[in-house]
Design brief:
Porin; 195 residues
Length: 195
């Protein structure tokens, strides 16, 4: 957890310290995230499918311009998956990711939609909770992640944009805990506001 807080602090400092033109604006994006984890099994002949969807989730990111059509990005997101086995046994899996990176914008003349690509690097903290009051070794773990993605920001008649984005998240895990959820695919839908 200390490592994740440190990473958030570094991302915030990088964005805040970046020199930007007076007319440029930072923005914040917030919205719904759907996450699909491929599962930890790498043997394609395995009959066990431990892939999971994390239907409950959110994402917040902040970006600031560093050059025309280039922005630094800091991002925090969270997702949860629940398995219900009996009335008294639920197993919750959560994935919390923090990272920073770069976003490239591709404006097309006066078009309302602006495509973008981005690459985020950081850490994902994964945990498994079955309601026990004492955590067992391997119930949580933090892994390096690299997340390339692409999206579309659509101008509205209001002071905000609608954003749709798809990302692939590569998780680098050491396979020593129970939280290796595998590589992930992420869909995000939200709004972006300048400030």
């Amino acid at each position: 957890m200390k490592g994740m807080l440190s990473l958030i602090g570094v991302c915030a400092c990088v964005i805040a310290a970046t020199a930007t033109p007076a007319s440029a604006q930072a923005d914040v994006t917030i919205g719904y995230q759907f996450l699909h984890a491929s599962g930890s099994f790498v043997d394609p002949r395995s009959i066990i499918d431990d892939s999971r969807n994390f239907p409950l989730g959110f994402n917040i990111d902040v970006s600031a311009p560093v050059a025309p059509h280039v922005r630094l990005v800091g991002e925090v997101n969270w997702g949860r998956h629940r398995d219900t086995f009996t009335a008294n046994l639920n197993v919750d899996r959560t994935a919390t990711a923090v990272g920073g990176g770069i976003r490239l914008l591709f404006p097309v003349g006066s078009a309302r939609a602006t495509p973008f690509v981005q690459v985020i690097a950081g850490a994902e903290h994964e945990s498994v909770n079955d309601g026990e009051t004492v955590a067992r070794p391997g119930d949580s773990g933090t892994h390096f992640m690299m997340q390339p993605g692409a999206g579309l920001a659509i101008k509205t008649g209001w002071p905000w944009e609608f954003v749709a984005e798809a990302d692939f998240r590569r998780i680098v895990a050491d396979k020593t805990d129970n939280t290796d959820f595998g590589d992930e695919f992420r869909l995000f839908f939200g709004i972006r506001l300048d400030f």
